[in-house]
Each structure stands twice: as C-alpha cells, then as structure tokens.
C-alpha cells in the first residue's frame, strides 16, 4: 500500500472514530420545566425553541430566571445536567457561572464601601500595605475593580490550586506581582483570573471578622436573602452541579461572530494574551477543569461561583428594585452604590480582549438588548452565562447553561433572544 493510501486510510479512520459514535447516539428528548407569570409565555416558548432549533444543545441544559419589581416572574429550566448519566436539569441544579462570579464579588466589595470600610478612591495599599510592591502603591480600589492594575497574568509565578486554597498566601503572590504596563488610570485589561484573589484578599483585609469572600457572601448574602450560590463549593453539594460540556454546534456558529474574529486577531498580534497563556500556572487550562470537585471547592471569586439562575437573578432583582429585598425587608446595597454601578467609565479598548469595553466598579456596563434600547449593569461568564440588573425597568435577569457556547460579551444568541422576548412582553403590559 502506498504512502498516500496509508495517509487516506488513517484520515478516514480518524473521521470515523471522531464522528460515528455521535452519529448513532440517540438525540435526547426536550424536557422543559418551571413557570412564567401571565403575559410572559413567549419567553417560555423561545426557551423551548432554543432547544428545538439547536441554539441550545440537547445534550446539555440551561436555566432562566427573571425578577421584576422584586418578584419572580420567570423561573424555567430544561435539558440535562448530565446527559451521560441521564440526569435532567432540575429545579435545584446548580452550575458554574465562570466570570459572572465577578459581578457577585463586586457586590460584596460594594457592601464594604457602603459600610465605610472601603473607599473606591483610596489606594489599595492603605488597606493592604504589601500591595504597594513593584510600583503599585498608588493603585486605587477603583482602578483595581476596573481592571486597570495591570495584573493580567492568568497566575503569577508560584500560584497553584494549593496556594489559592490559602487566601492569605494567594494575596502574598498578588502583592508581589509586577504590573504588565505602567498604571495611568486609563489603560485597562481584563483580569480574567487574578480579579478573584485580588478582591478576596482586599475583602479579607478590611472585613472586621477577616472573612474570605466565600465566607462573607455566605453569611451576608446567601443565608439572609435565601440565595443558592457559593464561592467555594462544599464537597457535599457537588451532586447538584451540572456537568460542563462543549456546545459543539455553537462553537462552529461562533466563527461568524465579528467580535470573536477581532479578539483572535488581537491575541495573535499583542503580547498580553501570550503572557497570560505562558503564565497560567497549574490552575486551569480549559473550562472543563471546573468539572473537578477539588477546583470547585477553592474560592476563586473571578471564575468559580456556582449556583442557580434563580439565585443570581434574585440578587440582581433586589438591586434593580432599589437595594431592599421586598420579601425580607433587608437592605443589600444603598441606592448610592447601585447608581454608582450605572455611572459607566469611558468605553475604550481592553488591552487583553482587544475590543471596546467599560468596567464600572467591577461590573460591565453595557447595552443588554440588541437594539441598544436598554441599559443595565452586570457580568457575563464564559460559555454564555449572563446576569444583570436593569434599574430603570426593575429587572433582575440570569441565564446559565452547562453547554458552553463560544460567544462573548453579549454575543450568545440564546440569552439575547430571550432578553428581546422579555422586553417585548414588558412593553405589552
């Protein structure tokens, strides 16, 4: 047999091995549960349609929750938490929300500002003296929260899962880290992972009880407000967590997204992304790493928050309604802090991501409807996770999925179309 024939045989065999198992795999049924308030039935119909037309993977699952004026109006879920084990997505299924965790972390920091324990315009080193190393003495809390500190490496030298388990040790490594650019209060670049250990240590330093962010969130938000969300998941809660999968069809669709093409070109032509890749440490090399119970247990307030769509929507719903929970009458944040999230900083190019972006005190301030008619604040996460508040219309929104799409920054068709349907329903009321 010739060399060419051998090569063809190898190629054909590889294709058969890659695609035949999926070809003969039975397509899972569409299973949808939950409820919507009267007048919001079109949102439920769109949620189902996403599974029918392939926008949402039949091999994964998703959940959507919406609060309006402090009351839950949409709470629906569907698909599979683990299709290989035939586990459907259930009412109490939780999932990793990746960078949507940053929004929750930003709320925790804002609570400390509300209590007079932090000032956004004071240097971080005032609260955390060791942070002044390597020319970071004048970096303010605001600049840290708005990704201006230049600490964009995925992980500074020496940072591993083990060091992240020790919040104080993680803080030591971040304090010793050198910025990737001269801090000028204008240049910003996405602190994808380091935002977590930075905010965790800052909170620990100023909290009178010196709690970690996971502990602070549990005691100050999760328990009093009845929110099913964790930063650092207890091992006995792993049975409820959806297994992350790649949304393979969605990955192909992503090639037509101009923002993804822009990001790819930027990654190839600038040094920051290369530096991030070369310094990611022994933490996580793919999103699927967060299928590990050991990594889920570590407090990383930038990437590994785990909870339900219902929980996240409730938090943002309270903020959208003015900061006080209508059910418990407890205050989450002052109106001053909520309004501050809406005061968008100048939209300029992110040095890491390569597209225009505005971070405001840790939140992404952006347009959440494709026609640009609605303003809000919140944070998205890898794979299509979405969470935001719209104070004007008093909406708290969260969409989560374990079928990870490739889209970024408002590009996921699933949540965008659900959002459009939601506001169309609101206009008719």
Describe this structure in words.
The chain is of the alpha+beta class. The protein has a domain of 260 residues: Beta-lactamase (3-Layer(aba) Sandwich), CATH 3.40.710. It is built from 16 helices and 16 strands. Strands 1, 2, 3, 4, 11, 12, 13, 14 and 15 form a 9-stranded antiparallel sheet that branches. It has a 3-stranded antiparallel sheet with strand order 5-8-6. Strands 7-16 form a two-stranded parallel sheet. Strand 11 and strand 12 form a beta hairpin. Helix 3 packs parallel to helix 8. About 1% of the residues have low confidence. Keywords: Signal. This is Beta-lactamase-related domain-containing protein. InterPro entries: Beta-lactam-related, Beta-lactam/transpept-like, Beta-lactamase/esterase. It comes from Strongylocentrotus purpuratus (Purple sea urchin).
């Amino acid at each position: 047999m010739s060399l060419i024939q051998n090569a063809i045989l190898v190629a054909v065999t590889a294709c058969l091995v890659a695609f035949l198992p999926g070809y003969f795999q039975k397509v899972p049924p569409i299973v949808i549960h939950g409820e919507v308030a009267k007048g919001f039935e079109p949102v439920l119909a769109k949620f189902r349609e996403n599974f029918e037309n392939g926008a949402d993977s039949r091999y994964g699952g998703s959940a959507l929750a919406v609060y309006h004026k402090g009351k839950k109006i949409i709470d629906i879920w569907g698909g599979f938490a683990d299709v290989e084990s035939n586990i459907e997505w259930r009412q109490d299924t939780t999932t990793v929300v990746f960078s949507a965790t940053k929004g929750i972390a930003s709320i925790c920091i804002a609570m400390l500002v509300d209590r007079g324990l932090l000032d956004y315009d004071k240097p971080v080193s005032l609260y955390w003296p060791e942070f002044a190393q390597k020319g970071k003495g004048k970096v303010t809390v605001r600049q840290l929260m708005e990704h201006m500190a230049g600490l964009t490496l995925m992980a500074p030298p020496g940072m591993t899962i083990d060091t992240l388990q020790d919040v104080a040790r993680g803080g030591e490594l971040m304090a010793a880290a050198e910025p990737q650019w001269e801090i000028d209060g204008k240049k910003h670049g996405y602190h994808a992972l380091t935002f977590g250990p930075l905010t965790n240590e800052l909170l620990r330093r100023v909290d009178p009880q010196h709690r970690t962010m996971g502990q602070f969130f549990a005691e100050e938000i999760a328990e009093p407000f009845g929110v099913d969300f964790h930063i650092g998941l207890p091992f006995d809660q792993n049975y409820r967590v959806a297994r992350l999968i790649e949304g393979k069809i969605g990955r192909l669709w992503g090639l037509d997204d101009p923002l993804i093409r822009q990001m790819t070109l930027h990654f190839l032509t600038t040094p920051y992304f290369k530096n991030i890749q070369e310094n990611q440490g022994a933490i996580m090399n793919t999103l699927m790493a967060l299928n590990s119970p050991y990594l889920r247990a570590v407090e990383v307030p930038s990437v590994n928050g785990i909870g339900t769509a219902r929980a996240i929507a409730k938090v943002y719903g309270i903020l959208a309604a003015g900061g006080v929970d209508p059910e418990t009458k407890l205050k989450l944040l002052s109106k001053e802090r909520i309004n501050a999230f809406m005061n968008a900083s100048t939209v300029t190019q992110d040095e890491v991501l390569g597209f225009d972006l505005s971070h405001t005190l840790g939140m992404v301030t952006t347009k959440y409807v494709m026609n640009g008619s609605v303003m809000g604040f919140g944070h998205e996460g890898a794979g299509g996770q979405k969470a935001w508040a719209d104070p004007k219309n008093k909406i708290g929104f969260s969409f989560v999925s374990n079928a990870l799409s490739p889209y970024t920054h408002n590009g996921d068709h699933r949540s965008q179309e659900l959002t459009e349907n939601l506001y169309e329903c609101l206009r008719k009321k």
